[in-house]
DNA sequence: TTGTATGCGTTATCAC
DNA sequence: GTGATAACGCATACAA
C-alpha cells in the first residue's frame, strides 16, 4: 500500500523542466530564474516533497550515520553515555544507529558486519565483556571507518579512546576505606576479561600494598554480571568466611546494593560493622539506606567527548594518523555506607 | 582516506565476466555453472566483498530500517522497552534507529522528518510529554509508513497501539491503600498532557469515589518531570499541608522515592504514618528502605509486542486497515512502603 | 549459462 | 538559464 513518494523527477515532469533544474531550484542555485525557483518550490511544498537520503548517500558514498555499539542500555551508565553522544551528534548532520551487543562477542561480530554493509561512516564502541579479540574493529578501520572506543578499553587496538581512570577511582576508594580504619577490605570484582575490571582490581591491590595491608585471595570475588542478582551470592560468600571483611569495595553500584542488602539481612550494621562502597554513582544511589558511598564517573561527558572526537575525524579526513587517548578522572563520593 | 570498498563490478572485471553474473553467483542462482559460482565466491571471500545495503535499499525502495522514537532512555522503563524491541527486530532482517525526542515536541517533529527522508519502513513511537498534536505521525502514515504507538497514547490517532491499563493500575493501587485503612490519599501526578498521567489520575479519583472518600484538590500535585529531583518540592508541599496525607500514590518509582526521602527527613515513619506507592517497579525498587510498593508494568513485553505488530505489517502490506489495540494489565506489587 | 540494458533518486559536469 | 548525461552499487527482465 506504500504510496510512491514524490521525487524530483515528478516535479520536473509536472513543470515541464528537467530534473536537474528542480534539483538546483531546491538548493537555491544562484543562476536560476526567480520564476523557475518559485514554481519549483511552490510545487515541492504543495506535494510535500521529501528528498531521498538513501539516493544521496549512495551518490556521495557516505551514509551520514554513526554506529554506536554498547553492551546494553538498561543501566544508567550506558544510557547516559548514549544521551551524551546523541546530544552532540544531533547537532551535526549525522545520525546515530544504536546497536546492542548484549555482552556477546558473537552478536558484536554480526553488528560490526551489518554496520559495514550499511556503509556507516564511523563507529563508537564499548566492547562486550566477552570480547578479547579486536580484529572486527580493525576491519572497520581498514575500510576507512574511524573507530572511537569508550569506557571499556580494547588493549592492543590502535584507535581513539575515551576512558576513565578506573585504577585511580579504585585506589582512591580503597585508600579512603583504609584511612577510615578498615582492616579487612574485600573486593567484588567484575567479569574477568574486561579492562575496567582489571584496572579496578589493580587499584584495589595497589592501595592495599601501599598501605602494607595483607592481600587475601578469598577476599576477592568476581561477579558474573552487572545486575543486583549477580551480587547476592558473591556477597554472601564473603560474609560467611571465617575472617569476614569489614569493608567491601564493589565493582558497581548494583553490586554494592546487593551487598548492602545481604549485610542487612545478616544483621550487620552499615557502616559500623561493614563499610560498603560502589562505583558509578547512579541516580538512585543517594536514596538508599544508608546512602551509598561510591565513585562518580562523568558519564555524560564520556559520551559527548567520544562523539566530538569521532565527528572531528569525519570532518577532516586527513589526521587519521594520531589517535587521541582521553582519560577522565573519577571522583570519590562519600555518603553514609562507609565509615 | 576512505578506501574504495570492493564492489560486484570489481569482481566482475577481475574475472572477465559481467556484474550480473557475479550478482547471481553470490545469490546462488540455480542456473549458473558451478565453476563460475565457485570462482566468484572465492574471490569475494578473498577480497572480503561486502554488499552495499544502501544501493539495495535504493533499488528496493525500502531501507529495512525501523525508527524508534522515545522521549529518553535513561530511565529503566524506556531502555527496557527498547531492549524488548531490539530482541525482536534483531531476529528479523530489519534494523532499528533509536531517536530521542528529549520530551520535546519540536525535536520530535525534526526526528519524524529525518526518518521520513531516510526512507524508514516503519515507526515505533512513544510521544513526548509536550506532544498533543499528531499530524506528524499521520504524515508518516500517508507516506505508507506504518506507525505503532506504545505506552503513551495519542488520542485521536488511528494507529496500532500497545498500551498499559494505567487506569486499572492506579485504581488497584489506591483501592489497596483504602483497604488498608488510609484515609487521606494524595497523588503525585505526572506532566499534564500525557495520556498516562490522565489515566492514572482517573484511576485514583475513581477509586476514591467508589469508596466514598473525599477528593481534596490540594492532595493532587503534578510534578514537572520524571526524575527524583522533580518530586522533592511537590512532596514537601503535601507534607506541609494542614491536613497532610497518610498515603501517597506517586506517578512513578522515582517520584515515590523522592517522597520517601522527604518523609524520612521529616521524621515520618513509613508505612505507619505514611504509606507510599509508586509505579513502574524499577529494578532498584526492592532495595530501598523500606522496600517500595509499586505497580509493575511488563516493559519488556511492551517492546516485544510493539515490534512484532510493526513487523507483521511490514511483511504483509495488505491488512493495514484494521489497527490493533493491545492493552497490558499492570500488577500491584506490595512491599513494605505501604501498610 | 551468461551478458545487456534499465532503473532506484539525486547531483555534478558539461553542453547549449 | 537550463537541459542532457553519467555516476553511485545492485538486481532483474529480457536477450542471446
From TrEMBL, chains A, B:
CDD domains linked: HTH_LacI, PBP1_LacI_sugar_binding-like
SUPFAM superfamilies in UniProt: lambda repressor-like DNA-binding domains, Periplasmic binding protein-like I
Keyword DNA-binding: yes
Record flagged with keyword Transcription regulation: yes
Residue span, HTH lacI-type domain: 6-60
GO MF: DNA-binding transcription factor activity; transcription cis-regulatory region binding
This protein's UniProt keywords: DNA-binding, Transcription, Transcription regulation
Superkingdom of source: Bacteria
Pfam family, one: LacI
Transmembrane intervals: none
Protein name per UniProt: LacI family transcriptional regulator
Amino acid at each position: 500500500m506504500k504510496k510512491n513518494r514524490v521525487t524530483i523527477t515528478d516535479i520536473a515532469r509536472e513543470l515541464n523542466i528537467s530534473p536537474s533544474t528542480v534539483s538546483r531550484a531546491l538548493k537555491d542555485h544562484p543562476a536560476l530564474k526567480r520564476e523557475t525557483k518559485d514554481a519549483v518550490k511552490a510545487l515541492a511544498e504543495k506535494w510535500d516533497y521529501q528528498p531521498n537520503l538513501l539516493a544521496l548517500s549512495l551518490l556521495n558514498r557516505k551514509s551520514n550515520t554513526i554506529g554506536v555499539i554498547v553492551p546494553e542500555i538498561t543501566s544508567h551508565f550506558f544510557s547516559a553515555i548514549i544521551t551524551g553522544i546523541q546530544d552532540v551528534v544531533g547537532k551535526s548532520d549525522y545520525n546515530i544507529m544504536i546497536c546492542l551487543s548484549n555482552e556477546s562477542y558473537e552478536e558484536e561480530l554480526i553488528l560490526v558486519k551489518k554496520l559495514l554493509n550499511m556503509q556507516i561512516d564511523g563507529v563508537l564502541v564499548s566492547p562486550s565483556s566477552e570480547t578479547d579479540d579486536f580484529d572486527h574493529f580493525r576491519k572497520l578501520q581498514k575500510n576507512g571507518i574511524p573507530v572511537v572506543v569508550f569506557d571499556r578499553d580494547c588493549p592492543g587496538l590502535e584507535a581513539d579512546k575515551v576512558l576513565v581512570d578506573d585504577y585511580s577511582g579504585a585506589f582512591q576508594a580503597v585508600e579512603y576505606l583504609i584511612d577510615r580504619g578498615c582492616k579487612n577490605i574485600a573486593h567484588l570484582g567484575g567479569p574477568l576479561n574486561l579492562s575496567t575490571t582489571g584496572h579496578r582490581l589493580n587499584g584495589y591491590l595497589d592501595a592495599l600494598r601501599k598501605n602494607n595491608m595483607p592481600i587475601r585471595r578469598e577476599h576477592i570475588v568476581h561477579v558474573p554480571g552487572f545486575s543486583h542478582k549477580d551480587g547476592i551470592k558473591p556477597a554472601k560468600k564473603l560474609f560467611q568466611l571465617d575472617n569476614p571483611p569489614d569493608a567491601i569495595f564493589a565493582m558497581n553500584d548494583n553490586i554494592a546494593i546487593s551487598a548492602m542488602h545481604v549485610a542487612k539481612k545478616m544483621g550487620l550494621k552499615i557502616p559500623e560493622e561493614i563499610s560498603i562502597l560502589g562505583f558509578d554513582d547512579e541516580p538512585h544511589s543517594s536514596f538508599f539506606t544508608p546512602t551509598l558511598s561510591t565513585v562518580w564517573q562523568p558519564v555524560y561527558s564520556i559520551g559527548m567527548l567520544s562523539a566530538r572526537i569521532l565527528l572531528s575525524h569525519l570532518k577532516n579526513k586527513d589526521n587519521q594518523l594520531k589517535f587521541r587517548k582521553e582519560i577522565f578522572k573519577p571522583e570519590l563520593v562519600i555518603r553514609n555506607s562507609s565509615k
